[in-house]
């Protein structure tokens, strides 16, 4: 563009995040809806060896994290995947689709959190305090999920000042719920409860194979490990990001993965896989009931409620801001960038992303939304891993983290493998939902091309 964008006239962001706060941010961004809502769904795909897909999902995410660390060290600016894609391939349409896929992943993730809010944790609180039981699939629960999404839109519209210190508090709350599950498991082992033989049990559906069952469960469990990539958007607010990012991200992912594996082991020890699968998004509530009958269930339900609220709010904020950023860069119609004159928030983008989320919670279940989120991000991660290798031809003037070559290579292969329709055993519904969302992106791209002609993308401005 010839004229300066509004972003170039703004002062630099305050560099207030040190290594400890960044570590909490990474851990807090990973913990949330995935483990609180999808443990039962993953158990339904693999059986008692529930810990295995979470461990494999961590390995795949860990490989991709090396690429993100090299790229954020080389280009310590916000925008993440869109920035790296644009620099590596310089294909405007591909850059747009990557940014749009990231935005869609935020909407599907928030939608799964909305369903967990209504069908699981709020429902349990209504039972505990008012002895009111509502069927999880009832229209009332769907209505509650829609109201929840609408409430997030109102908060988003009014303007939310996110702080890293608030993230520390919410992370501690989310973490406390998972620590409760792990302590219940430790107690069960100490008193001789639980069935260790379940930990090696892999249930293979008719017509399937052990490998397909494992990859199918891993593809869904991957949803629980996403979030670490959001931290690269904090690069401009970190003190010395080139130095502190590698340790914070890798330690944060390791902590989250360890917690997830211990939660999965506890769940399998105490409850058979078919019962976990039947419990669905209520699986962890079931673990608390069986493992610690005297523990007040409303406490865990409240913790779970706060965990999914935090996940949903962060994702809806990200999605609306990214759509607004794309409109500002003129890569989708400009009216999506309309800012409310009084609230100073991108209200058209908020309305659009909220509308998409309402449609999703009305037509899909938690498993499909979680699977769609992981599918979209696996596609993005495949591109980021390839971009890391391509951008090694571009020399940097400063020292930065360099990933071992095998990491982005294996990262690209494993992410592509888990995204493949036949190899991963992923249900076709995931591809249908993702396909419709990305088709909407293509339509917006075409409309904008017709209205404005060619344009230049500045991904570093996306989401600001």
From TrEMBL:
Keywords for the protein's UniProt record, in alphabetical order: Cell membrane, Membrane, Transmembrane, Transmembrane helix
| UniProt-listed InterPro entries | AA/rel_permease1, APC_superfamily
Key word Cell membrane present in the record? yes
Q: Which domain of life is it from?
A: Bacteria
- The membrane-spanning stretches of this chain are 21-38, 50-72, 93-118, 138-157, 169-190, 210-228, 249-271, 297-324, 345-364, 370-391, 403-421, 433-451
> Per UniProt, what is the membrane topology?
Multi-pass membrane protein
* Compartment annotation: Cell membrane
User: By what name is this protein known?
Assistant: Amino acid permease
């Amino acid at each position: 563009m010839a004229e300066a964008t509004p972003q170039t006239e703004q002062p630099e962001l305050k560099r207030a995040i040190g290594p400890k706060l960044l570590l909490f941010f990474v851990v807090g961004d990973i913990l949330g809806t995935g483990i609180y809502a999808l443990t039962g769904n993953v158990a339904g795909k693999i059986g008692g060896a529930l810990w295995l897909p979470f461990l494999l999902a961590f390995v795949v995410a860990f490989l991709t994290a090396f690429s993100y660390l090299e790229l954020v060290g080389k280009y310590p600016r916000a925008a993440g995947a869109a920035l790296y894609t644009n620099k590596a391939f310089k294909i405007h349409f591909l850059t747009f689709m990557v940014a749009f896929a990231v935005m869609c992943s935020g909407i599907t993730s928030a939608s799964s959190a909305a369903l967990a809010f209504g069908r699981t944790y709020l429902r349990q609180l209504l039972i505990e305090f008012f002895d009111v039981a509502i069927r999880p699939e009832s229209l009332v629960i769907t209505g509650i999920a829609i109201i929840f999404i609408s409430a997030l839109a109102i908060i988003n519209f009014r303007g939310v000042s996110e702080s890293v210190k608030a993230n520390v508090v919410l992370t501690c709350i989310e973490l406390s719920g998972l620590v409760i599950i792990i302590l219940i498991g430790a107690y069960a082992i100490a008193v001789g409860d639980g069935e260790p033989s379940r930990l090696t049990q892999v249930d293979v559906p008719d017509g399937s194979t052990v490998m397909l069952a494992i990859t199918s469960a891993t593809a869904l469990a991957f949803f629980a490990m996403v979030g670490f990539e959001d931290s690269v958007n904090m690069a401009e607010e970190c003190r010395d990001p080139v130095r502190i990012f590698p340790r914070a991200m890798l330690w944060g992912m390791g902590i989250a993965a360890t917690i997830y594996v211990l939660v999965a082991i506890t769940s399998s020890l105490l409850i058979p896989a078919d019962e976990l699968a039947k419990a669905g998004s209520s699986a962890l509530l079931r673990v608390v009931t069986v493992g610690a009958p005297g523990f007040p269930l409303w406490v865990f339900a409240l913790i779970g409620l706060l965990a999914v609220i935090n996940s949903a709010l962060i994702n809806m904020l990200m999605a609306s801001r990214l759509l607004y950023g794309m409109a500002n860069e003129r890569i989708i119609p400009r009216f999506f960038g309309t800012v409310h004159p009084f609230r100073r928030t991108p209200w058209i983008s908020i309305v659009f992303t909220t509308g998409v989320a309402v449609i999703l919670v009305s037509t899909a279940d938690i498993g499909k939304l979680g699977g769609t989120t992981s599918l979209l991000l696996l596609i993005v991660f495949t591109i980021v891993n390839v971009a890391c290798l391509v951008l090694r031809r571009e020399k940097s003037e400063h020292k930065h983290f360099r990933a071992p070559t095998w990491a982005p290579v294996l990262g690209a292969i494993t992410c592509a493998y888990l995204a493949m329709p036949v190899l991963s055993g992923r249900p076709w519904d995931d591809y249908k939902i993702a396909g419709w969302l990305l088709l909407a992106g293509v339509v917006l791209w075409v409309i904008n091309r017709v209205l404005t002609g060619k344009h230049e993308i500045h991904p570093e401005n996306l989401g600001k």
